Amino acid sequence: MDILEEFRGESDQTICIVGTIILSTKLCMADGNFSNYEKDEILKTFPTNNEKLKETVLNIIDKASNDKNNITYHAERIKKFVDPKHENFLDFIVATLIKFAKADHHFDEKEKEMINDVIDVFERDKDKRNIFQKIIDKIKLKDN
Fold this sequence. Notes:
Elements: H1 12-28, H2 36-45, H3 51-66, H4 71-81, H5 87-103, H6 109-122, H7 126-143
Helix pairs in contact: 1-3, 1-4, 1-5, 4-6, 5-6, 5-7
């Protein structure tokens, strides 16, 4: 079953958070190593004092890390679930992915490609794409 299907009846905000967790997990796996540090970064981004909610986040991470679908597939699913009037949620997801790409202190071409694939799926307008690209390029320059 598709990971997002479990949350089909939830709010756009919940879908956005679940989708961000899924895409972040996929992005963190790009280098073939999904470290505990990266998992902790996801948990810090979506903090919860409730043990049941923390378990839910860890369950989503686990399912996403074992899921065979690529980041584009999940971005397409998220786009279908999020109401077009909440497109700022899509911008939040992209910004969060950029944060996670840098979480392991290494921003590589594969991560850049994956983020650009998500931006393409979300059909962000040219101005927003340029803003995201400037951020991506700036991060890349710091790694050289």
